[in-house]
Amino acid sequence: MNRFLSHFEEIIVVVLLAFMCVVVALQVFFRLILQDPLIWTEELATIFFVWVVFIGASLALKRNEHFAVELIQRRLSIKDRRLVGIIVGVFLVVFSLLVLIEGARITWFNTQVSTAAMQISRAWAYSALPAGGLLMLVRSLEILLSRIRGDIADGMNADVTVDDTGKDGLQVKPEEQL
């Protein structure tokens, strides 16, 4: 179970991408081969795509793969890097909370609005925002706590890589060990 939770985002993204590929392949088959396009496939593929984007944002946080401007950070002392890392971690937590709260609000307002082709609630698509926001919040808190504890010395990950093997949570390895 711990292994599942440590790879939760990867599993969900792979499953959603597989479903999206099947839906798009169905659309291509029906449109080009049978000359009878399905009207709901574009909508469903878009919903899957939105979910992939927001779950993928959490995955990028987990893997520390969001881009960062390191030009200034590399010129700072280790102590200042840690402080900047903690400040960035706080901003990540605040941003994730905003995505979660505002996403929940937008989802709630769209529960009674139906999609054009499938006639399902638009809340299915919009619920990707609070779900992704919640996952990003968990990952942001992990990053912030690691930076406060000093596990990630520079905060911007210039000289270390975060490894989440699932056993002991986030672990920091110097680049030489990788």
Number of helices: 6
Low-confidence stretches: 157-162
Strand content: 5-15%
- Please give the largest β-sheet: 2 strands, antiparallel
Fraction of residues in helices?
55-70%
The chain-level structural class is mainly alpha
Shape estimate: elongated
* N- to C-terminal distance: 26 Å
Order of strands, widest sheet: 1-2
Average the pLDDT over all residues and give the rounded result: 85
Total number of domains: 1
Radius of gyration: 20 Å
Give the H and E element order.
HHHHHHEE
How many extended strands? 2
Helix-strand blueprint:
Blueprint: H1 2-6, H2 8-33, H3 41-63, H4 78-109, H5 123-126, H6 128-149, E1 160-164, E2 170-174
Helix pairs in contact: 2-3, 3-6, 4-6
Can you put this structure into words, describing what you see?
- The chain is mainly alpha-helical and 178 residues long.
- The protein has one domain.
- The protein is 63% helix and 6% strand.
- The chain contains 6 helices and 2 strands, in the order ααααααββ.
- The chain has a two-stranded antiparallel sheet.
- A hairpin with a 5-residue loop joins strand 1 (160-164) and strand 2 (170-174).
- Helix 2 (8-33) runs antiparallel to helix 3 and helix 3 (41-63) packs parallel to helix 6.
Keywords:
mainly alpha, two-stranded antiparallel ribbon, elongated, 178 residues
Short synopsis of the structure:
The protein has 178 residues and is mainly alpha-helical. 63% of the residues lie in helices and 6% in strands. It has one domain.
